Batch of 3 targets.
Target 1
Amino acid sequence: MPEMPEVQGLVDFLGTRLPGLTITKVNVGNIAALKTYDPPIDALRGATVTTASRHGKFVDIATIAPTTHTTADAAAGPHLVFHLAKAGWLRWYDTLAPTLIRPGKTPIALRVGFDDGSGFDLTEAGTKKSLAYYAVQDPQDVPGVARLGPDPLDATFTRDAFAALLAGRRTQIKGVLRDQSVIAGVGNAYSDEILHVAKMSPYALAAKLDDAEVERLYAAMTDTLAEAVATASGKPPADLKDAKRRGMRVHGRRGEVCPVCGDTVRSVFFADNSLEYCATCQTGGKVLADRRLSRLLK
Ligand SMILES: [Zn+2]
């Protein structure tokens, strides 16, 4: 799943390609992934892209309406907002193929083409479809965007702001970091990495972290994300997934060697997924119980 750094990489890429281009093609491949009906998705056709930006893990392509030709008299056009979810991706084409897509019979959820012949497909592999896209007048009309907590790389997201978010939360820090309404953009992979850098147990209770721990976690989060964004930025979409995988120290590396201490990276079931951690670095050598497994054994 792409998280904030990969989405930022996509946005940076789209930001170098799209502004000034007019949308000429909007082909819906999976109608179930289109979550809005007003304005109609076809309202994007003829609109000219102004910017590409990011809200958490959402990509936001802003436009000016077809009837205006200069930014001075520009009437805001619809925004195309999308979330790639678990198995979604964006495929960029300098020259978009003229072939038609057949709704319901393609991994392509949406195809967008531009007046210079370029374009992209939003694709989703697998059977469990959760990629979503929206045509909206205002990105805040997307419930998932409206709900977002602060962005951890925003200048206003200080150590104190982070401490205030954690205070009173009697839940495990792993879940807090992944909660988009608390902090925007961090998912299962980067929360594993952040906790490993912070040398902190994923099961630590947010409310119980002392000042030094909050400080360490804040630094680990901002450093890890800033580094990953720097790695992702400037890469074409096709390279972003591999770059993410290569950059991981513990996430997805069960059974491999911890790059810090040499212990074996362990995995444990958490919520709807598994997490990876290093017992020596993060839990004082204690192996975390797999709650799902122990429940089954009882
Ligand atoms: Zn370690």
Target 2
Amino acid sequence: MCSLATILLALVPRGDGIPDSFRFRYTPVSRSVIEARLGKYKGNDQQREAALKQLFAEAGCDDQHLSEQPVKGSKLPNVICVLPGSSDKVIIVGAHFDHVSDGDGVVDNWSGASLLPSLYQTTKTDPRKHTYIFIGFTDEEKGEVGSRFYAQQMTNEQVSATEAMVNMDTLGLASTEVWASHSDKQLTGLLAYLAKQMNLPVTGVNAERIGSTDSVQFSDRKIPSITIHSLTQDTYNARILHSRKDKLSAINLDNYYETYKLVAAYLVFLDQTAKRE
Ligand SMILES: [Zn+2]
């Protein structure tokens, strides 16, 4: 079941790259579907990779557009679903599906990976200018192996055609956060702006102490990137990541669904606003 949300954006100040007024619509996937997909975290990374591929197929990504990219140095591939657009400009949306052996890895990072098929589903409802490439990365926990491989094999032409890389890692512990110090300022500004229009919370929290994440591989190639997470001082102090506490019950489902809705709208919003300087 879907509800159609139309977001009206008006009275936008001039000069920030956003048109004076425009509207877009997006059709969010229902909360029950989002939660059912989150529930498919079980098993080892091989099973999670297969589950992610299956979820993409269910969401309508057919064999022509869905692929597994073998990754040097990893036993498991990246899972890639392409949504073609009308221009040669690209937006990459990524999240790692692997997890450490402690805990179930629901927060870190099935919370991000299992949203990819739903985000694909929401983005494909209308024709888009950008081509969207949704990627489930392998072996982030072993040093961003999958995202490093992907970013390094991109040609210079592909790099310059990529206007944004949106990375999700560790969602649902609290409301939406941005890793501000490692995110492109324009992309962060657009997310903050949209969140305000949608009356959804977003704040910038820097998560330096928990290490790195996949977006770094793309910013290293000068691709504007943003990482969305949910770590606050409190959730960090609770030491959920990489521990037995990382299980389904650690997720606040209200926060999680809000983050999905915000990111879903953001991806559609970026189709109209993303522009490399
Ligand atoms: Zn992670």
Target 3
Amino acid sequence: MRILFIGDIVGRTGREAVAASLPKLRETLRIDLAVVNAENASHGFGLAPDMAAALFAAGADVITLGNHAWDRKEIIPYIAETPRLLRPLNFPPGTPGGGSVVVEVGGGRRALVIQAMGRLYMDPLDCPFRATADLLGRHRLGGTVAAIFVDFHAEASSEKMAFAHFLDGQVSAVVGTHTHCPSADAQVLPGGTAFQSDAGMSGDYDSVIGMVKDGATLRFWRKMPGERLAPAEGVATLCGVFVETDDSTGLAKRISPLRMGGRLAPTMPEA
Ligand SMILES: [Fe+2]
Ligand SMILES: [Fe+2]
């Protein structure tokens, strides 16, 4: 199975880059499953229903969120009726929406997509390790589902690596989100799970993690709240990860980062 994951879409420039490129990427990379993180799509904070609909229309099969899940309140009724829009699995019981979904991809195959959220330097939450292990008890890689993709939304690389090793051999891929910087550690772990600790954001990198640099910088050195942060709106770099899995085992054959446009050095997986 050929999987494309796109990291945190930040603001209009990120949304436009994804809308413009995703249909073509799906075609050239022959993507079976496209997952995008859109927790920052609405001016840096949350996701509005019309933006979610536009991402689905552009070719996203599943959309994930994160700590900014509820910044746009309109998403709450929308997520309740949109199973392909995920919020972290380990939110408290009773939270609207779901943290996982099984989708049909081509060729009669099914894929499980999961989002969990880390706890180190993040808000306290239920244990993502335990929540994911419980869920995986109900699915079998290479059996009930041909592939399992996990977006692990977390701050610390240590927690992300630990989480990936914890799941090594049980899922096809663990890709991190939330730091907004693409990491250079893409690898297939010894048990066959593809891993990259952060996919990077899809937004303007002449910024502080996607937000206008002047205001964001002032907050650090003046230690006073400044004006409300707004997304930088220069040309976005679309950042993501491509994973190819073996349909019989569900394990990863390869993982390659993908970067296009904007300021970062481009890289494209071999088709
Ligand atoms: Fe983010
Ligand atoms: Fe986040």
